[in-house]
Fold this sequence. Notes:
alpha/beta, 10-stranded mixed β-sheet, two-stranded antiparallel sheet, 21% strand, binds 3-isopropylmalic acid, binds manganese (II) ion
Amino acid sequence: MAHKVGIIGGDGIGPEVIAQGMRVIEAAGVELETVDYDLGGERYLRDGVILTDEILEEWRGLDALYVGAVGTPAVPPGVIERGLLLRMRFTLDLYINLRPFLAPDGSHEFVVIRENTEGTYAGEGGFLRKNTPHEIATQGSVNTRLGVERAVRYAFELATTRRNHLTLVHKTNVLTFAGDLWERTFNEVAEEYPQVDTAYNHVDAACIYFVEDPQRYDVVVTDNLFGDILTDLGGAVSGGVGLASSANLNPEGVSMFEPVHGSAPDIAGKGIANPLAAILSGAMMLDHLGETDAATRIRTAADSVAGETGTTVEMGDKVIAAL
Ligand code: IPM
Ligand code: MN
């Protein structure tokens, strides 16, 4: 039976790269029953719709969601991010953000597990005396035992399927409350996984190691904001963000797959965006749908053309030719 997948091309280069992802999936012989959703900054500018409860309910009945990129310069920052992407992550409880990277020397792949529903992203905080000289803005970080533990457990489980090595990244020397909860949870869960070697890095040090010594990493687990920053760095050191793919997972529900990059309005419509991150995100989706054969073939094909250049369609052609 065909897998039922919701497609959100989104804004800017989003629809262009997703179109290539869809071509490649089809060429790999996987049948998808797709439902298109016209959402993003452009849609919002047209009729004010960001996301509706009805659409969210519909999504719960899908097998997966495949997203290009959302965001338009004409919409103030935060509106689409919070109203669409974060609402999707929070409401569908996509609590794992999984982002794999190829080490800069090509020697191995390492993966960052980013907690995806809490931390500074939770939206706790507010203004006092806004627009006065005495203005106060607070932005809290929400860390629940449940939220931390499920991310940590997912990371340990993943580590056991790989090289049995897991690094916690945080900033326990300064964030003494949130860091303490993360560290205690990590250490407690670690006792259940004696076969997994564990390590801890402060996030600032991790930034150095990502660049200078990524060999030390196999699976990394971290909070939402550190994970956001660290995965852009991961993309930058491993062939560029044009290759960085991601999965937003609810292991018990519907999951969403998207490239790490944004809508890149500066190159939108020119047909020059690199579709490989979207294609690789499509491979992650196929893995999740149980189409592991096709996923592996797509990954191998995409990796084999990663050093090449071409238009968006040409890059899609190259991957299909290499399948
Ligand atoms: C990402 C993006 C999002 C994030 C933005 C668009 C809200 O940067 O997926 O990494 O910060 O999580
Ligand atoms: Mn980001």
